[in-house]
Specification:
Chain lengths: ~350, ~290
């Protein structure tokens, strides 16, 4: 079922949590709401679920107005960051809950409940845990049970609030691939909230990048990564070098500006270059800037080089092969040439430290 | 294991530990064990027969019945108000929330005698509602309704105070999960909320019950001390003690003391269960965030 969000706004006192959000999620898509903590992504998810009410705007499910529909009538499956399993019920009873609370005339028979719960437990590959209690399960197992419980009522929409946020890295990676497969099998619309850009880029069909209660960009993972619509998106998705500059010709003037003290022309701007979009050469190159090598770290499959240009620190990432060819040493003077630069005019609000690392 | 092996580097010297433990045990003996023994010794000083006879005195029986009646009437109200107040405070943010929390504590802060006097001022013959109540033939002060009202007021905080921190610690997630799965408000309450708070609730009820049965000051003011009618156990003890009926007084007191012992045992059992549940709750908490 498709979800439409029109002009949604929400305040908590003076704090604007959501500001005029518009978003359409077509049937069958897996959408990630991505942003730093406090950007409003969880509030938006809770408004879709009916657990929070919007101050203004409209939520539609499958074209039908659902803004004032109670959470219990929305047919929405919700998965919480901290699982929220019923701790006094066995795994079986947790999954059966949604079926048991149905009004009498809709409630399946005991045998039918049993069959459906065991099917769901098989689906999440945990049917052997049916008689355990939540406290006897690992975090990954709990989250899969929480998912089975949410799916038991056959929701038309699945909402997940930082579903893997409390799990360790390895389990998290396994579970998100598994979620992707599950989503494809179930043919439902799913929305999940995350602050982990890697997770969003890997799992989602589309990524909604949010900041300060606003949508910064909506696009496929490739679009938002390689063609960011704003400085915030650029910084939030991966590492980036920012050059403050007065621009009329991107990169060349990035260097010229501070080095030669050219009087500024045009308007003030910021240039963004990803660390892996910069090449290092030993000889001067056209459009390059000169820099001194400060540090060289080998991190996994790549080599991170820190360089100083004037007083600014620049990060460059090279493949191991390229680093072996260059044989960089501390204090060495090299030339930098960007493969791709993106220029934005200076935003009114100063940029915060974005990006959670590569 | 011998003590010097178990002794930790940061432990106090032996004499400090021994004297502190000694002071603690001595205090317990003089202020708890000794009075308890004295009550029972005095009650049985005339022998088993005299003890039973004293307890079977019609006034004693009516005092016991009244005490139980008041507790039985008060506790359901306490449970309903306590759960409602704790739920409102733990689950919702609203204006005046801190005022409500303060108000819940008020009965602890006010002397019970003052509570009784205030009831007289409001419901007494010269009180605010006195003439109206008299005109409609409703008797509150110097009768059972007044005693129930003041007991209700005095015991109100126990359940709520026990539940607020518990419900705050448990959070809203499970209830929200229940609602998103289609549960109605009552289904959510009886299937999710209540099972999670049942031990805390029972603990609060036990404490409230002990207080309801033992309350003296407030009840004394509004009871009017009508023998065989508005005397609860504590009031009865005082009256017959003043009449130099030691066996009767201590006999009735021994019933109260017994009640205290039962409360202690029940309280310990529930505390033990609660600790188990808390451990389960803590085991239920997710591991440290890795991101």
């Amino acid at each position: 079922m498709s979800i439409e969000i029109q002009n949604i706004g929400k305040r908590f006192g003076n704090f604007v949590a959501l500001d005029n959000i518009n978003l359409t999620i077509p049937t069958g898509e897996l959408v990630a709401l991505l942003g730093p903590s406090g950007c409003g992504k969880t509030t938006l998810l809770r408004i879709i679920a009916g657990m929070e009410s919007a101050d203004e705007g409209v939520v539609k499910f499958g074209g039908e107005e659902a803004t004032h529909l109670h959470a219990r009538d929305r047919q929405v499956g919700f998965v919480f960051q901290h699982y929220a399993l019923f701790r006094h019920m066995s795994v079986f009873e947790n999954v059966a809950f949604g079926l048991r609370v149905k009004p009498k005339h809709e409630r399946p028979s005991e045998a039918e409940i049993r069959r459906r719960v065991l099917d769901l437990l098989k689906l999440v590959q945990l049917d052997w845990l049916a008689d355990r209690y939540p406290s006897q399960l690992s975090g990954g197992q709990r989250q899969r049970i929480a998912l089975a419980r949410a799916l038991a009522v056959e929701p038309k929409v699945l909402l997940l609030d930082e579903p893997f946020g409390a799990l360790d890295t390895k389990v998290r990676k396994e579970l998100r691939r598994w979620l992707r497969r599950l989503h494809d099998e179930m043919h439902i619309s799913s929305v999940f909230v995350t602050h982990d850009q890697e997770e969003a880029l890997e799992v989602a069909d589309r990524v909604v990048v949010m900041n300060h209660g606003k949508v910064e960009q909506i696009g496929t993972p490739d679009e938002v990564y390689s063609n960011p619509a704003s400085p915030f998106v650029y910084q939030f998705l991966g590492n980036v070098n920012v050059f403050h500059s007065r621009v009329h010709g991107a990169w060349a003037n990035v260097g010229a500006d501070s080095a030669e003290g050219v009087p500024p022309k045009g308007k003030e701007a910021l240039a963004f270059v990803r660390p892996h979009d910069i090449d290092i050469e030993h000889t001067p190159v056209a459009g390059g800037i000169e820099a001194t090598v400060q540090d060289v770290h080998a991190i996994g499959p790549m080599v991170r080089v820190e360089l100083a240009h004037a007083s600014e620190l620049i990060e460059v990432e090279l493949t191991r092969e390229r680093a072996n060819v260059l044989q960089l040493a501390k204090g060495q003077c090299v030339w930098l040439k960007p493969r791709q630069v993106k220029v934005f005019s200076v935003p009114e609000v100063p940029l915060e430290e974005g990006g959670s690392g590569i | 294991m011998s003590s010097y092996v178990a002794r930790k580097a940061n432990a106090e010297p032996r004499w400090v530990r021994l004297s502190l433990t000694g002071i603690g045990l001595g205090f317990l003996f003089f202020f708890l064990a000794l009075p308890l023994v004295a009550v029972f010794a005095e009650a049985f000083s005339g022998g088993w027969g005299a003890y039973l006879e004293a307890l079977q005195h019609p006034e004693a029986l009516s005092a016991i019945a009244l005490t139980v009646l008041i507790a039985v009437v008060v506790l359901p109200f306490n449970i309903a108000f306590g759960v409602a107040a704790a739920w409102a405070i733990a689950r919702f943010d609203f204006r005046g929330k801190s005022l409500l929390i303060t108000l819940i504590d008020l009965p602890f802060a006010v002397s019970p005698v003052v509570v009784g006097l205030v009831s007289l001022l409001i419901f007494g013959a010269q009180g605010v509602f006195g003439p109206w109540l008299a005109a409609h033939g409703i008797k509150i002060v110097f009768a059972l309704p007044g005693m129930i009202l003041v007991t209700l007021f005095i015991t109100f905080p126990f359940v709520a105070r026990e539940l607020i921190p518990l419900m705050q610690a448990q959070g809203r997630d499970e209830e929200e999960a229940a609602v998103s799965l289609g549960a109605s408000g009552w289904q959510m309450f009886f299937r999710v909320t209540l099972p999670n708070i049942k031990w805390g609730l029972l603990y609060g009820v036990i404490l409230a019950n002990a207080r309801a049965m033992g309350e003296f000051g407030a009840v004394s003011v509004v009871s009017g001390h009508i023998r065989g009618e508005t005397n609860t156990l504590p009031l009865y003890v005082e009256i017959i003690y003043n009449e130099y009926n030691a066996i009767g007084a201590f006999g009735a007191a021994s019933v109260l003391a017994l009640l205290a012992l039962v409360t202690l045992v029940a309280k310990t059992l529930v505390e033990w269960r609660m600790r188990q549940e808390t451990e389960m709750l803590e085991a239920g908490l997710p591991p440290e965030k890795t991101s």
